[in-house]
Amino acid sequence: AAACAGTHPKPVYAYDHTVSFVGLTTYAWYKDPAFKIPHGDSIIDGAFLDSHIRSAVDDALRKEGYQKVDPARATLLVAYNTGDTGVGERDEFGNYEWATGYVVATNWEKERTVTIDIRNNARKLIWRGSINRLEGQNPDAVARELDREVATLLSHFPPTS
After folding, report:
1. Residue 71: left (phi > 0), alpha (psi -120 to 50), or beta?
2. pLDDT, tens digit, for every residue of 22-68?
3. Burial level of 25, CB count in 10 A (0-12/13-18/19+)?
4. pTM here?
5. pLDDT over threshold 50, residue 2
6. What are the backbone angles phi and psi of residue 76, rounded to the nearest 5°?
7. CB contact at 8 A, 130 and 115
8. Which of 30, 37, 44, 154 could form a disulfide with 79 if both were Cys (CB 3.0 to 4.6 A apart)?
C-alpha cells in the first residue's frame, strides 16, 4: 500500500517568526513591478493561469476569513509566480511496477510550481509558500489541480506558533 501512495511533494513554506499574524485580516493583490503573466503551453494560455490562480487565492483566503479590500487599506499584500519545473510521470492505473516489474500505463504531464508571497502593508515579505504539482491533460484538469495546489498551500497560512 505504501508503494501506491500519492507522489505529490509536500508544500514548502517559510515565514518571519518575528511577525504576529493576529489582526491581519484584510488583503489586496500586490502590484509587483517585476510580475509577468505566466507563459502558457499547449493546454492553456497565460491569461487562463493568471485569472485562475488569482481566483483560487481569493477563494482560499475568503474561506479563511480574509477580506479583499483596496490596497491602501490592506493589512496583507498577496502576489504569486509560477513556472514549469519539468515533466512528471503519472501511472494511470496505480503503480504495479513494484509488484510485477512491468509499467501498466504511464502518462507524462507537465509539472508546474506555484509560489505565493504574502507581504505586510509595508511591503515586507512575511510568508512564502511554494508547491509543485502535475498540471493536467486538459483545461478542466489544470483548473482542478490549480485549485488543489492553492488550497493546499494556503492551508499553511497563517502560520501557527
Report:
1. alpha
2. 999 999 999 988 888 887 777 788 899 999 999 999 999 999 999 99
3. middle
4. 0.79
5. no
6. -130, 145
7. yes
8. 30
pLDDT digits (tens, 9 = 90+) for 131-161: 987 777 788 988 998 898 899 999 999 998 6
Beta-strand relationship, 12-15 and 125-134:
antiparallel
| Cross-strand pairs, 13 | 129
**CA proximity to 158, closest of 122, 127, 121, 132:** 127
Rounded to 10°, the helix 46-63/139-154 angle is: 40
Phi, psi of 62, rounded to the nearest 5 degrees:
-60, -40
Q: What is the DSSP letter of 43?
A: S
Place of cell 487562463: 48
Q: State the first-to-last Cα distance of the chain, in angstroms, to the nearest integer.
A: 34
Per the structure block, which three cell numbers stand in for 29?
A: 493583490
